[in-house]
Specification:
Elements (H helix, E strand, L loop, with lengths): L1 E6 L4 H16 L3 E6 L6 H17 L1 H11 L4 H7 L4 H11 L3 E4 L2 H14 L4 E5 L16 E4 L4 H5 L8 E3 L14 H8 L6 E6 L8 H11 L3 E6 L4 H7 L5 E4 L5 H7 L2 E4 L3 H10 L3 E4 L5 H11 L4 E3 L2 H13 L5 H13 L4 H13 L1
Parallel strand pairs: 1-2, 1-3, 3-4, 4-5, 5-6, 7-8, 7-10, 8-9, 10-11, 11-12
Helix pairs in contact: 1-16, 5-6, 8-11, 9-14
């Protein structure tokens, strides 16, 4: 079987989901291509959309959140219409590669495929994967054969007019490496960290967002016998700013995130759906900071409600939460509830469930 995984270059989480699904497809012997759906819009329009989104998210998060809350579903309709010119490019690409199924990990990609499917009467099976703990605005404008959503979110999608028969609760797909039960000692040995030190891992997402510089400096100065590892993602400026500080270890783009999460005593992260899911699977105590209004606040509320994480709005609020997390024992109420929720909400690998359905319907 040949599968096209359509992602969107407006953040790393969608790419991570696509890679997790592609990893599972490859293990089953299927051929695949991962492609940025914005490529079909042309270079100029792609650049405007992706760079504009990243700039607003990183530098104007409050405005970004207010616009998301105010316009919601309505904001996707002009985007939906603007994607019509991309139809012929999509149709030509699908014919060239003879795909059996198209799996979209971003609603924009599903919108493009919806236009192309209706206009050219495409026969490939079409799927949309939700990568946040909320209904994604615009999903009701798309026509996939199946919607793959997190555990417990069927009603959220049904409330927006999506047929329950089309919804499959699978969870959010993350790479298999996050499910490998590596011990903290083994992870630290592989990464070169002292097994006796406290290790705090700060994850700002693929774009390196948030006030991680101030937080890293504060934690490194206040915590004794501590190393602060900062996952800077693509943010080269943050990497340079943190280089040279005592007990702060900046890390650029890396494929070892599963090891860093397993090695840590505490993880402090932004509220991206993929990142916090990866952190939850690792079993390491999680603190979510600076959730951007919109999908991230929904992610935060879901994790707080299920006792999967603590939350903070400022670096100053993070410090006492780190101390609390470090003092938690296996029998502490928060730890017990977190373990219970993790087993119930992430029982299996979502990638496996999703590929099971795709194989059954498209192969």
């Amino acid at each position: 079987m040949r599968i096209l995984f359509l992602t969107c270059s407006t953040g790393g989480g969608h790419n991570s989901a696509a890679k997790a699904l592609a990893e599972e497809a490859s293990a089953r012997g299927h051929k695949y291509i991962i492609k940025d759906a914005l490529d079909f819009l042309g270079h100029r329009r792609k650049s405007i959309i992706s760079k504009g989104h990243v700039f607003a998210y990183k530098h104007m998060p409050k405005l970004y959140g207010r616009l998301y809350d105010r316009v919601g579903e309505a904001s996707t309709k002009p985007v939906f219409i603007s994607m019509q010119p991309s139809m012929f490019r999509i149709n030509r690409y699908l014919k060239k590669h003879s795909f059996d199924a198209v799996v979209c990990v971003h609603v924009f990609a599903a919108m493009m495929m919806t236009h192309a499917r209706r206009h050219y009467k495409l026969t490939q099976k079409l799927y949309l994967v939700a990568t946040d703990y909320s209904y994604t605005p615009g999903s009701c404008l798309t026509v996939p054969d199946r919607f793959f959503v997190p555990i417990g979110f069927t009603n959220s999608f049904v409330a927006h007019g999506i047929s329950q028969e089309k919804i499959v609760e699978t969870g959010i797909p993350i790479k298999h490496d996050f499910f490998i039960n590596t011990t903290r000692e083994e992870a630290r040995k592989k990464l070169g960290f002292d097994k006796n030190e406290v290790l705090i891992v700060l994850s700002a997402g693929s774009m390196g967002c948030g006030n991680m510089r101030s937080l890293a400096k504060m934690l490194a100065s206040k915590l004794q016998n501590c190393t602060v590892a900062v996952l800077c993602g693509s943010n080269k400026r943050l990497f340079r700013q943190l280089s040279g500080y005592n007990r702060i270890h900046p890390i650029g783009f890396t494929n070892d995130v599963p090891l860093y999460f397993r090695a840590a005593n505490v993880i402090v992260s932004k509220a991206g759906g993929l990142t916090i899911t990866e952190a939850a699977i690792s079993g390491t105590p999680l603190i979510i900071m600076n959730a951007v209004q919109g999908l991230e606040t929904h992610n935060l509320k879901y994790f707080e409600h299920n006792r999967l994480a603590r939350s903070a709005e400022t670096p100053q609020q993070v410090y006492p939460m780190v101390l609390q997390a470090l003092s938690d024992t296996e029998s502490s109420p928060f730890t017990v509830l977190k373990k219970k929720a993790t087993k119930e909400l992430f029982p299996d690998e979502a990638s496996t469930k999703i590929l099971d359905v795709v194989e059954k319907e498209a192969f």
